[in-house]
Amino acid sequence: MRAMLFQEVGKPLRPVRVPVPEPGPGEVLLKVHACGICRTDLHIVDGELTEPALPLIPGHQIVGSVAKLGDGVERFREGTRVGVPWLGATCGACRYCRSGRENLCDHARFTGYQRNGGFAEFTVADARFCFPIPGGYPDLQAAPLLCAGLIGYRSLVMAGEGERLGIYGFGAAAHIVTQVARFRGWRVYAFTRPDDQAGQAFAREMGAVWAGASHERPPEELDAAIIFAPAGELVPAALRAVGKGGVVVCGGIHMSDIPPIPYDILWGERSIRSVANLTRRDGEEFLALAPKVPVRTEVTAYPLSAANEALDDLRSGRMRGAGVLVIDEG
């Protein structure tokens, strides 16, 4: 099969031909149709996440059809269309797994990080961690739901209840969570790089009532803010934008160092939370909710062979909405 292989930090992914993998007990072999491009993929190939299982096939927003069942799999049939998220496996026995917090499992294995992912024509996944794809979403439009959508949804849940939500960094996750937030009654205020006029226009197109530069104050005090941009300096900025009792949610798996925070901008029962990974319950809840909103994903498509170009576009901020690799159009 064709695949894009990550072998060394600082080097581009290499197009290769490798054997089609075989599913083990409890696993499914998937014929990959599409795979989303995520900022986490950048953190992996740029060396900011330091524990990849090299050589590695990246990609963790996978949409594919079941091509073969491993022993013991009864959940799916061959031909079923499923999605594979970032969380690829957990131990099921640690205190986090036993208390409904499998996203914090110390022994978790992640798709496209410790398990080969979807930048390939076929991949193997643990059947317990795959989701049926809701009807009405073509492969390309479904792929961003599996990480950008799921992390955005978990971040919104962490933000609690309120009316005024700030979103810092308007990319794949932000354009999805804006739609969900509006569905739930929030007014959304979008913050982008100061010179990103296109991003601000995109945010307004997605339903934001205001869009401006990340250093600006919104026209009214926020109840909560979600930070998707991996820039630690945005944490104090978001704290200054939220009112007393406000929540700042850091939605990325990696962020640059947070500068010193004056206590007066934290005081007033403001809080800072991080979002780590996802649970299968998050996936089930969000994929049931998405068609009701309905969530519309804005997608830029790339062929598998252009994975490096897609990552460069994401790195430079040239990508509108979510990037998706087209693996198989059949």
UniProtKB/TrEMBL annotation:
Keyword Zinc set for record: yes
InterPro entries noted in UniProt: ADH-like_N, ADH_Zn_typ-2, GroES-like_sf, NAD(P)-bd_dom_sf
Pfam family, one: ADH_N
Annotated ranges, domain Alcohol dehydrogenase-like N-terminal: 24-134
Entry-linked SUPFAM superfamilies: GroES-like, NAD(P)-binding Rossmann-fold domains
Keyword annotations from UniProtKB, A to Z: Metal-binding, Oxidoreductase, Zinc
Necessary cofactors: Zn(2+)
Transmembrane segments: none
NCBIfam families (UniProt xref): adh_fam_2
Family assignment from sequence similarity: Belongs to the zinc-containing alcohol dehydrogenase family.
Protein name, entry field: Zinc-dependent alcohol dehydrogenase family protein
